[in-house]
Design brief:
The protein is mainly alpha-helical. Helix content is about 55%, strand content about 5%. The structure holds zinc ion.
């Protein structure tokens, strides 16, 4: 408990917070890779710049005004689907992950 409290205080310091959060994220990724390897599962990361929040998960339309983080819900001008920012992003990340998986599996099949 004391360790997490110290980290919480350190994260509030602007100078330390970025490196601490980067380190925590790196550790999470390291553990996920390790666990996947241990369970004989594949691990893929979606590109950092993939616009998961801006793409309508129903029709694929890209809405750039959603870059504004205060926009939590938006209506797709193409298909009128109401997109919850986080849910929509998670659906897009899932599909992007499946796409990466399929591309790599296909590439592996072509090699063998
Ligand atoms: Zn749409």
């Amino acid at each position: 408990m004391s360790e997490s409290l110290k980290v919480k205080n350190m994260v509030q310091n602007r100078h330390l917070s970025k490196s601490i959060m980067d380190a925590s994220w790196s550790e999470l990724i390291r553990q996920l890779k390790y666990k996947c390897s241990w369970k004989n599962k594949r691990f893929y990361q979606v590109d950092t710049y993939y616009p998961s929040s801006q793409i309508c998960s129903r029709c694929g339309y890209k809405e750039s005004r959603v870059k504004d983080l205060s926009v939590r819900v938006w209506e797709c001008p193409n298909c009128t689907n109401m997109n919850n920012r986080d849910l929509n992003a998670s659906i897009n990340i899932m599909f992007e992950g499946v796409k990466i998986y399929m591309e790599r599996e296909l590439a592996e099949l072509q090699v063998n």
